[in-house]
């Protein structure tokens, strides 16, 4: 997008990407304690891969989610012989997801989302004032 509302478009695209990242992190945290039999894959951590969205006159038109990537399906084997999914040796498969990493990523994504919201609001207010001057 080009023109007077370019900054609104860029900030809006950033909000969309960071909201997608927050959703992926929420999935990861919600599934961190999933247990699977050793014969099945573990929950795979979700990663959001973003990239610049096109360029107009040599400047980016924002950002977009390029794809999602997934963590290791092998997860980790944990000895828990009392679990109903335990194999004959007492092992179950759990996701290889670290809660500390997820919470750190969540803080980064939330702050980046908020920065884009602030940019969006500031640009909107500037455009509104410019329109008032033109009256």
- H and E order: HEEEEEEH
Output the number of helix runs: 2
Poorly predicted runs: none
Radius of gyration: 22 Å
Q: Could you give the order of strands across the largest sheet? A: 1-4
Overall form: elongated
Which structural class should the secondary elements be placed in? alpha+beta
| Oligomerization | single chain
Describe this protein's structure.
The chain contains 2 helices and 6 strands, in the order αββββββα. The two termini are 26 Å apart. Strands 1-4 form a two-stranded antiparallel sheet. Strands 2-3 form a two-stranded antiparallel sheet. A two-stranded antiparallel ribbon has the order 5-6. The protein has one domain. The chain is an alpha+beta fold. The longest helix is centred in the C-terminal third of the chain and has 35 residues, at 99-133. Helix 1 (6-30) runs antiparallel to helix 2. It has helices spanning 6-30, 99-133, and strands at residues 46-52, 55-56, 59-60, 63-70, 76-79, 91-94. 44% of the residues lie in helices and 20% in strands.
How does the SSE layout of this entry go?
Elements: H1 6-30, E1 46-52, E2 55-56, E3 59-60, E4 63-70, E5 76-79, E6 91-94, H2 99-133
Antiparallel strand pairs: 1-4, 2-3, 5-6
Helix pairs in contact: 1-2
List the keywords.
two-stranded antiparallel sheet; 20% strand; 135 residues; alpha+beta
Short description:
This protein is of the alpha+beta class and about 140 residues long.
């Amino acid at each position: 997008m080009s023109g007077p509302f370019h900054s609104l478009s860029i900030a809006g695209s950033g909000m969309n990407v960071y909201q997608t990242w927050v959703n992926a992190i929420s999935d990861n945290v919600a599934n961190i304690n999933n247990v699977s039999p050793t014969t099945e894959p573990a929950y795979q951590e979700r990663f959001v891969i973003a990239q610049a969205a096109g360029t107009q006159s040599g400047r980016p038109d924002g950002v977009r989610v390029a794809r999602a990537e997934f963590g290791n399906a092998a997860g980790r084997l944990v000895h828990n012989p009392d679990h109903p999914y335990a194999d004959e040796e007492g092992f179950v498969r759990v996701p290889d997801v670290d809660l500390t990493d997820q919470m750190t990523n969540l803080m980064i994504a939330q702050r980046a989302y908020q920065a884009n919201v602030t940019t969006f609001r500031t640009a909107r207010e500037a455009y509104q004032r410019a329109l008032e001057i033109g009256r």
